[in-house]
Amino acid sequence: MNKTRLQQLGQLLNATVVSKILTAADWEKDGGKRHPEIGDSVDLKKSCLMVIRVNGSELHCIEIAATLTQVEKQLLGWAVQQGGTIRPVSGASDLERQARRLGEWIQQSVTAGEWRAELPDRMELRNRLFDGMVPFLLLCEQVEEKEPSYGELEKTIRTFISDETLLIPLREQEWLILSSDRVLTEADTEGDEVLGHEETKEVLSTLAEGLHQLITGEWGGDCHIAVGEPIVPSENVVRIVGTLRETIFLGRKFHVGMQIHLPWLVHLERLLSGIPELVRSRFVEEMMGRPDLFTDSETVSTLDAFFSMDCNVSETAKKLYIHRNTLLYRLDKIKHEAGLDVRSFNDAVLVRILLLLYKVTKRK
Asked: Quick one: signal sequence residues (predicted)?
């Protein structure tokens, strides 16, 4: 609300009116309800606070230095609701406005640490959410052309995923995509009616890669996608957003250059991320036979491929397009220089941890 509007409102109410920005925590501390909406108000000692806009965890409010009657607050709240929306977008459709409201609520809940929060009945999109929806988290940065609008992005996504898909804006350049789990059977090349757990993960990975190619092909830039297994959105949408955000963070931290991030592949990274930097650096220095072992790109690529192939020598050689004996020579070289044999389970675990930690510490 601009200065002129504030002055006009102050004249009507015969009181001083100023704008304020509060956090959701400050709002609750002042006596406001959790998950406030436009038009909600709270009485202070000598004034009244009213929400005029919700922007993530920030609440744009007006403070009126007067004691208002209940009717005055209701009328003012109604007027504010008619004149303002969450992140107003010119020409936005009803679906986009509803999606943005849902995104604001999700963001508030994540910020507040309420990962188990259930979707409130007031959300208009609640009736379009159903059990078994596949969540994708899309993060686009450094877009080469102009940033896609909600409508453009939704239209593009619908060319790849089924019509039963919702696009929900979260933070700047970040979107949650919820799609029917039918997309799993549609993408399954073998045509199985019921996919096993591992088959489901493989299909999800393929879908994420396809979506990434679609987005980058249309708009370019640096795009990251995380995908989770099917959820019940009304109960788990906040939790999955937090999980997928952490997955992208860990993927970018430990695996530079990777754009597809899968929660079930970063368990070890999640554990190592919690270790203090000083402890990580000291551990790497003490355990490595040669400090410069991982500076050799061939060694790193060989180990990455070896671990991604579950330490299978034959499959790793195929992945690297080298002879099996060449791979064995490289592994023996690592054993000689580092004193660790990655064909032994214990040593393989240790080298895997060292490699992950080195990738982080070398960029400090």
From this structure: none
